[in-house]
Amino acid sequence: MQQPTPGPGPEPLEDQLVLESLLSRGNPNYKPAFPIVVIYFTASWCRACRAVSIPELMGLRNDIKWYKCDVDDNQYSPSYCGVSAIPAFQAIINGVPLQLMPTSDMGKLREWIKALRA
Length: 118
Prior knowledge:
CATH superfamily: Glutaredoxin
Mean pLDDT: 92
CATH topology: Glutaredoxin
CATH architecture: 3-Layer(aba) Sandwich
Number of domains: 1
Order of helices and strands: EHEHEHEEH
Shape: globular
Distance between the termini: 12 Å
Number of helices: 4
Structural class: alpha/beta
Strand content: 15-25%
Strand order of the largest sheet: 1-3-2-4-5
CATH class: Alpha Beta
């Protein structure tokens, strides 16, 4: 299993094809490259998004692959995931999406990240 490589920030979720490659869609033979994936939905104009310290959240765990989806650059993926407000976070565990976490509360986000299990 591939380990996420630390970097300066989350990888951009540029289009729907990238998102769909992370989902098992009920395929019993699906083998994720990364068992735990978190997608951060944001926008440059979002004031609440500025309260979120992505480097801090990424530093909590080294077994999570992070993606960042700018809702202005990729409008289809947020809609597909049911995002109605930002910032929002989508965890995908072994190809299965969990319930969205729409918050900028760093305390809640820290606890949520720590609790994710593959």
